[in-house]
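Morning - adenosine-5'-triphosphate inputs below, output right after.
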Amino acid sequence: VLQGYAADQFTVQTSRRLMDKMNDLVGLEVLEDPRFHDDIQILQQGAPRRPLNLTSTIFSLLGTLVGLLSVGGVLLSIGWWVPLVVIAGMVPLTLTQMRLYELGWSMTIQNTQASRELNYFQKAALNHNFAKEIRLYGLMSYLTHEYTERTLAYQRTMRGVRNRQLLGVLPAQFLALVVTAGVFAYAVWQAQLGVLTAGAVVLVIGALAQVRSDLWSLSDALGMGTEHLHWFGKYYEFLDAAPTVAAPAQPRPLPQRLDITLENVTFGYQGHAPVIENLSLHIPEGQTVAVVGDNGAGKSTLIKLLLRFYDPVGGRILVGGPGEAVDLRDLDPAEWRSQVAAVFQDYARFEWTVRENVLLGAPEDPQRLNYAAAASGLTAMLPRLEAGLNTRIGQAYGGVDLSGGQWQKLVTARALYRRARVLILDEPTAALDPRSEAEVFAAFAELSRGHTALLVTHRLGSVRMADRIVVMRQGRVIEDGTHAALLAQGGEYAELWALQARQYGAGAGESDAGPGGAPQSALP
Ligand SMILES: Nc1ncnc2c1ncn2[C@@H]1O[C@H](COP(=O)(O)OP(=O)(O)OP(=O)(O)O)[C@@H](O)[C@H]1O
């Protein structure tokens, strides 16, 4: 019961410290490092037991040492050198045991990624989000095969380690046995010579057995103790690690104006070539800017940089009006982000109630909630949800599933609910029907009045409302201007516009009808 209680306490405390640490990791870079995920798996698995195990190992070490001292005293009765010889005979066993625990730990570390990968196959087989493809493409046999093969390979590796552990211990065990047998024979010989009584020999036999078992426990405890210490080493290393994207020790105050300026910004994801190159852009506060460009041009990456999920490797991002501009790196990330509302392309779908999904932990302001829900189109879909805003999402918890468009309305409400001076929408209407799209854009236009707004979209019909359109290609800004100016320029934007207009049958060129939504495509 005590062990269970202590394990509960340790689990909560250790997990909380891990979560607090995650909160300190203000950037996203760390999450893209496989070693980080290995560490998290090892730390999470060890959290409920390592602290308790280390404590009990220390106690068992102390207990064994006290026992050894007293029983060692008995062995002294047949000669001062006897305890020394017995201990010396056990030293190789202790060292081997410790080395083997060390080997076991390093194998665990080396194979954590393999273990995560094989578990991925099992998790995928049970994952609700993958269920349709698994059934349609008959994927289960592939998943089962991969899981089984990988698990067997993993087990073979670990079995190899266990076999080596066994074989490694045998010679040392044998030596310890020979030493014990030698001492026993010596005691019998002494009895025959009349130096020791029969009673003393019996005592020595008992003491020898006890010393052997104590020394064995000692070597085991030392080996296990080292393993626990390794785990703690990893735990504190994780907690103490300085993140690459860190909050400044002494942040500068937030400037009055929130103009955003990128100066020759270059950025590449860790280990990859730059995806933003020498990009310069100035967005005065209050301006609505649409960012368009090919897939992979770097639009979402630009947004991630503006939110300081990553730091540029070259150039800088400034926030503030003339004379007060501050490098984004010198602002408190939490303070800066509190000024920004964003709908990401891959937004988070929390399996909570609709209300919780909109508030995201913020206190409820009924008026604001009503406004955000109405403007995003959420209000109109509420009657179809059984408990309105209190409807639970997620069938795994007895809730409902939302359609893609319904989700998009919900996350738009989430962004509109936040009182932000900068609004960022990355493909906010990709899943919306034309009517909802028009409504969301009307709300967006109203909300962005007086606010900075950044809209990333492929739907060119909706970008005309922006004060300015920025066209990106391969991490650079290739065109920048108003809709009319860019059409007149006859460059990339004009070409994209004509392309979408043609697909809508509105005719190419400067048609005012323009493209109203996603292009239709036909299979070859
Ligand atoms: N976390 C990441 N790690 C490595 N490369 C990434 C990562 N995220 C994006 N990339 C790469 O960066 C490039 C730019 O991606 P980004 O998502 O910014 O493009 P985008 O312009 O938003 O594209 P889309 O229109 O398809 O949304 C792509 O080549 C992509 O593969």
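Note: The beta strands are 260-268, 274-283, 288-293, 314-319, 326-327, 340-343, 422-426, 452-456, 468-473, 476-481.

O.
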